[in-house]
Design goal:
Strand 5 (62-64), helix 2 and strand 6 (87-89) form a beta-alpha-beta unit. The protein has helices spanning 42-52, 67-79, 121-126, 128-132, 145-157, 187-194, 201-214, 252-265, 270-284, 297-306, and strands at 5-9, 13-20, 32-40, 56-60, 62-64, 87-89, 95-101, 107-112, 136-139, 162-164, 182-183, 218-222, 228-232, 236-239. By secondary structure, it is α/β, with parallel strands linked by helices. Helix 1 packs across helix 8, helix 8 (252-265) runs antiparallel to helix 9 (270-284) and helix 9 (270-284) crosses helix 10. The strands form three sheets. The chain has an eight-stranded mixed β-sheet, sandwiched between helices. A four-stranded mixed β-sheet has the order 3-2-7-8. The protein contains ten helices and 14 strands. The longest helix is centred in the last third of the chain and has 15 residues, at 270-284.
Length: 308
């Protein structure tokens, strides 16, 4: 039986959330209504979502020797995530993010990456056996970009499928795209990477074709409440999102990624995996936070049945 482990190489960052009526303008102080904290970071969020959806998840990253780092390890242990390849760096702090959320669910985020920037090519090489034995390996851009690029190339050379969530958006070398089996940018990231102003379904298709021409095998452009677009060399397909009332959009893209990777690892076809991810992300924006907003598997399945 093939190994179905979903390995995520990426970032962990504790999130400090403040919710209020409005986001502050430059130089303005506003009074918030609610404060809470929770584990975050795009890589960690995706691994957690994969585990909660029933996937066998492994996380590779770097954390600090501090309370936030210990909290992360405790969370991974509780959720059954393999964290044996996480390195603890005693010379720096675990990454911290401050997330401000307004009454419409819009957010503003600032992150100090800390230990995330200490993830090294040696960490990747030391994890080679785990990478070789993975079903798929997921990446984002919250670590040193050169290390991420090195890891993508290495995993591709090992013959293991690769998935990139290119956030925060940054220009990538042209010769990296052929190493990607899946890329999943949102509108902003797709615009940054392709130079195409992605503002709807038609322009998302154009951006998807751009990625395919660069050598990516599957481009999934996510469009928030407007769903997603899949572009491959052979097809273009649009996916609509269920209509929901957004409370907090933080982490929706990570939950999409975790759901998508889990569905693939469970043998579901690409079309079904995107539908599952779309519904999971839509449900998540109706709740505060990221990890606390990840829906239960049965909720996602029920949502998919309602929309048939």
């Amino acid at each position: 039986m093939a190994n179905k482990t979903i390995t995520i190489i990426g970032s962990y960052s504790v999130g400090l959330f403040i919710r209020g009526d409005a986001l502050p303008a430059k130089g303005e102080t506003v009074i918030g209504n609610e404060f809470f904290e929770g584990g975050g970071g795009k890589g960690s969020n995706q691994a957690v979502a994969a585990a909660l959806f029933g996937g066998h998840a492994r996380f590779i990253g770097c954390i600090g020797f501090d309370k936030y780092g210990q909290d992360a390890l405790a969370m991974y242990k509780r959720l059954g995530i393999d964290f044996s390849s996480i390195r603890i760096d005693p010379t720096t702090h675990t990454s911290v993010g401050a997330i401000l959320i307004d009454k419409y669910g819009h957010n503003s985020i600032s992150i100090v990456l800390g230990a995330n920037m200490r993830l090294s090519t040696k960490d990747i090489d030391d994890s080679e056996e785990a990478l070789r034995n993975s079903f798929i390996v997921g990446f984002q851009l919250e670590n040193d970009r050169k290390v991420v690029e090195y890891a993508i190339r290495k995993v591709h050379a090992l013959g293991v499928p690769t998935f990139l969530d290119p956030a925060p958006a940054a220009k990538l070398p042209d010769d990296l795209y052929p190493c990607l089996d899946y890329i999943k940018p949102n509108e902003t990231e797709a615009t940054m990477l392709t130079g195409i102003n992605v503002s709807g379904l038609a322009s998302a298709e154009d951006a998807g074709h751009w990625f395919i021409e660069k050598g990516v095998r599957n481009a999934i452009i996510t469009l928030g409440e407007h769903g997603a677009v899949l572009v491959t060399a052979n097809e273009v397909k649009r996916y609509h999102s269920p209509t929901v009332k957004a409370v907090d959009t933080t982490g929706a893209g990570d939950i999409f990624a975790g759901g998508f990777l889990t569905a693939l690892s469970q043998g579901k076809p690409l079309d079904c995996a995107i539908k599952f991810a779309n519904h999971a992300a839509a449900i998540s924006v109706t709740r505060l936070g990221v990890i606390d907003a990840i829906p239960k598997l049965e909720e996602v399945e029920a949502s998919m049945l309602e929309k048939k």
